[in-house]
């Protein structure tokens, strides 16, 4: 066993890259009507899923998604050494109540919508470092609980500007292991907080874009990879506006990603047909797209090397009410089908 | 370099135990009048510290504490590979805004008041696994921001029952490194969520006690250590009621820790003189006690081996309003002066 290799300021190259041995995704009705519908394990008819609140429904979605991923990995709950999970709700109650009954040692993480890449990074380090044989990384979000948390209760019927994003109802879970034959997590680039002063909570793509560009740029600087090494460079939920800004910033820094750059928030909905404005967002967006669509394409060989970057806007209603700007963060992981 | 060794279900024994090369703690006025006052780096006269809100003050306390710890380690911000931090505020704004300017790759964690042991666990794994040379683990809490978040704005003047705890205003930060001569983090026992149905948010000690007992019991089961191997077994912030319940549960399971068991929430205040009811709480409680008092005693040799267990109550106002009980979690790390 050899130690991980630090590359540059923000990246580590794993020496015992963990395999993504199984994934699962459960999404809401609207996500199940979008372009990626065939890749999700389960599509819910009803956002409450028999629960008495949206928050309890979100916890159930996370719990069932994690359980499904573990089952698909042919493992029992007791085989999982750690779970890394987090969500958007205050005090991360989506996760805490979601995994309460699972009896798995639990590390709660919070990175807003960057959580999937964060939990995946830490889970991968756990396996690579020899601390665990099986680790789960998971996140969730729910349109209705997020609206209540960050904007208004749905009953208020607030108008959404075109820059607004649509929080995905869904969860994605990945089981990582030191066993298995890929896809592998091979590199981890961990983001710094970047805040260029955007204050509009209805334009989070713009707030997160500088952080996304910063992490992607650092990734190439640190690793020596070039964009063409990747079949796909996919951010978490910048959606239309943030994606374009990120591409512009990278272009100005001499990094042209236009050939292979897209965003989970653009993939999950057909914005024009589904009235989702700038596109999808929420922890569950990049999580369900990774666990559903991307994992399918990787295991089918349509994609061989991707850079998966989840992006988070680290605001709260309190920080917004106190006039603060919106700090962004983005974490990236390289996923490869074969070890070079 | 050898891989970490898994012991039992919840523990890893580190093979390249990181050193706590420096710590720092900054606390509020009330904490600075308590029994541990001589061990803190800085005591604030004013809870706002020149800021316009309690939340901004909390962020400043965290930022200054982290900066001070890094300075005391004779390092620059750019030498720190990762920072793990979290706090009690919704969307962890204490941490996000606190470390925004530091430009250090950031993993946000959320474990309520278990956060210090959680961030310390992950930071230690990062160093042990070869992912980093220098990592900071930090948390904060603030009496006034926590009251506003979880109970009522201070102006409301709500009555506090005797079971209530007093959220510590303060922050603690630890710099871990693969260099240095101890104290070392040698074992990590990661907690599962335990929820026995307590619903009284004014009695969080009772809600967290079963989780604390569960993790301490698992630690002894996994490692083969016995209580007498430790000079001190110290929980995060169970305070008086939770500490007694934890001791009882352990006793009933044949584990007698009465000789060396105490709690950071009991150490930091003189409850009778300071009117702090059951004792201190908040992420900053165990963090500042570790970074101040415990680190001093370890480096002076008054303590040689301690089990440090931070305990968290994973509730939110939303979960409480929806009638949910309070899930608890506790994470433990062994700190040793010499490697056996």
What does this structure look like?
The structure is a homodimer of 340-residue chains. The first copy, chain A, has 340 residues and is α/β, with parallel strands linked by helices. Chain A has 2 domains: 5-177, Stage V sporulation protein AD (Peroxisomal Thiolase, Chain A, domain 1); 184-336, Peroxisomal Thiolase, Chain A, domain 1 (3-Layer(aba) Sandwich), CATH 3.40.47.40. Chain A has 10 helices and 15 strands. In chain A, strand 11 (232-235), helix 6 and strand 12 (261-263) form a beta-alpha-beta unit. The longest helix of chain A is centred in the middle third of the chain and has 20 residues, at 204-223. The model of chain A has no long low-confidence stretch (mean pLDDT 95). At the A-B interface, helix 2, strand 6, helix 3 and helix 10 of A face helix 2, strand 6, helix 3 and helix 10 of B.
Tags for this model:
10 helices; Peroxisomal Thiolase, Chain A, domain 1; globular; six-stranded mixed beta sheet; homodimer; alpha/beta; 33% helix; 340 residues; seven-stranded mixed beta sheet
Rg from alpha-carbon coordinates of chain A: 18 Å
- Content-based structural category of chain A: alpha/beta
Helix and strand run of chain A: EEEEHEHEHEHEEEHEHEHHEHEHE
* Overall geometry of chain A: globular
Low-pLDDT ranges of chain A: none
What distance lies between the first and last C-alpha atoms of chain A, to the nearest angstrom? Answer: 17 Å
Strand content of chain A: 15-25%
* Oligomer designation: homodimer
Number of strands of chain A: 15
Largest interface comes to: A-B, 64 and 64 residues
- Main sheet: strands, sense, barrel of chain A: 7 strands, mixed
Going by CATH, what is the homologous superfamily of the largest domain in chain A? Stage V sporulation protein AD
Examine the coordinates and then state which fold CATH places here, giving the name of the CATH topology of the largest domain in chain A: Peroxisomal Thiolase, Chain A, domain 1
CATH architecture of the largest domain in chain A: 3-Layer(aba) Sandwich
Overall mean pLDDT of chain A:
95
């Amino acid at each position: 066993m050899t130690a991980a290799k630090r590359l540059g300021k923000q990246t580590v190259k794993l020496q015992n890259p963990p395999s993504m041995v199984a994934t699962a995704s459960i999404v809401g009705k609207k996500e199940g009507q979008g372009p990626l519908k065939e890749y999700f394990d389960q599509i819910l008819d009803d956002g409450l899923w028999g629960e008495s609140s949206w928050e309890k429904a979100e916890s159930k979605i996370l719990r069932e998604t994690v359980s499904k991923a573990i089952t698909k990995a042919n493992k029992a709950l007791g085989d999982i050494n750690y779970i890394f999970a987090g969500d958007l709700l205050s005090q991360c109650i989506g996760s805490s109540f979601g995994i309460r009954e699972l009896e798995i040692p639990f590390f709660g993480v919070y990175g807003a919508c960057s959580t999937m890449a964060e939990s995946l990074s830490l889970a991968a380090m756990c396996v690579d470092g020899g601390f665990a044989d099986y680790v789960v990384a998971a996140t969730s979000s729910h349109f209705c609980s997020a609206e209540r948390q960050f904007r208004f209760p749905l009953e208020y019927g607030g108008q959404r500007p075109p820059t607004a994003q649509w929080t995905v109802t869904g969860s994605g879970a990945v089981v990582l292991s030191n066993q298995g034959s890929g896809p592998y997590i091979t590199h981890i680039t961990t983001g710094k907080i970047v805040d260029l002063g955007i204050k509009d909570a209805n334009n989070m793509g713009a707030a997160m874009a500088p952080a996304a560009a910063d992490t992607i740029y650092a990734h190439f600087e640190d690793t020596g990879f070039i964009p063409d090494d990747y079949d796909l460079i996919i951010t978490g939920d910048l959606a239309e506006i943030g994606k374009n800004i990120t591409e512009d910033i990278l272009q100005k820094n001499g990094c042209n990603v236009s050939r292979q750059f897209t965003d989970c928030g653009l993939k999950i909905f057909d914005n024009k047909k589904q009235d989702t404005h700038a596109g999808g967002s929420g922890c569950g967006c990049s999580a369900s797209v990774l666990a559903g669509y991307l994992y399918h394409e990787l295991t089918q060989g349509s994609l061989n090397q991707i850079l998966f970057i989840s992006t988070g806007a680290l605001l709260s209603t309190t920080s917004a009410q106190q006039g603060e700007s919106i700090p962004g963060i983005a974490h990236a992981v390289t996923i490869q089908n074969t070890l070079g």
